[in-house]
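#onboarding

Welcome to the new folks! Below is a worked example of what a typical request in this channel looks like: someone posts a single protein sequence, and someone else replies with the predicted structure as tokens. Don't worry about understanding the tokens yet, we'll cover that in week two.

Example request:
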Amino acid sequence: MLPVGLLDWRRTDDGRVVARWLGTQDESWLRELVAEVAASAGRTVGEANERIAEIVAPIAYRHGRSRRTVEAVWTLERRRWSTRIASPVPPPALRRALFELAAERSREEALATAAATFNLDSARIESLLFADRAHVRVLSPPVTSATAAELVEEYNLSLVQALVARATEVTATIRANLRRVVGYSKLLGLMATFGEAADGATTMALSGPLALFHETVKYGNALARWLPALITTPGWSLTARVVIEGETLRLDLDAGAPLPRTHALPRAHDSKLEAQLESDLRRLTSPWRFEREVAVVRADGRLFFPDFALVSDKGRVLVEIAGFWTPDYVASKAALLRAARVPMIMCIDERHAHGELARDERVIGFEKNVDAPGLVAACERLLSGSGC
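Example response:
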């Protein structure tokens, strides 16, 4: 994603935020950027920044692009590069030694003593003191740099991801590859509820990062990582309420947006928490086993995609795990439990299982990991009829 200060967008009179996309018309100045970047190996980060600002920014300006956009593209490309500290002695060790000496001796004496200690010239000691600062680190190139066309796609996607990461709410419409898109959202721990559109498509209402009271950045990164999965599907659309520069604006996107559709979903569709739980169940030699391919459940007029089911000879229990939370999301889970017509257990962060949820025997609180014996016991109570 891009820092908010590098986002290029405009506000419409009806309160919408519109991204300023890059396109094929930008490839001429982007090729100049690619060439200048290729020459940056061995330069410091600060030197490379200055060169790109002096040489590339004026060319981009003639194509209607601001220096901010140039800086944004360079920020994305620079993430492929590594940096090294060009100092034979770790700068923290130099600083520590020199500052201790300077507390007792004159500046010249301190420098001379430190130079002798580290076998360096006195003048070089000063130049190396802060060689670990970001702007003076030396750039090392990646195996392959991006092409101008690749930078267009990367910039457009990063721009949208940064905008969505500032949302209070997001509503997506999914018309294909539903299970894979939903599965990836669950892998990332996103808070979502589902419904059906009039044309038969599935609507997915997600809590935005700015709706949370904690872990906003972590959740925003998860939502940004999920977005490419939606974009790969035909006929997708998205509406979000985005807070930017102190104002809440509406972001509307659909499959006509110039965004790359090359995302590949990960093979593993279980979260770390689920993987730990499955491992714990195996260690118990429990007769209960995981079932990941769970059918869609309709409850209270909404769709529900359980995380998994636990199955034994006694029966089958759907299990949902809620990590991230907002009051509305927790309330929706309570409503789901009330409406469910199938055996179901909710695992929720114990800090947020209050009121009705705290009293429901189908709710298991957890801190870091779900207690496997407790979950098994809850499943057995539920199927025996004592937990309903």
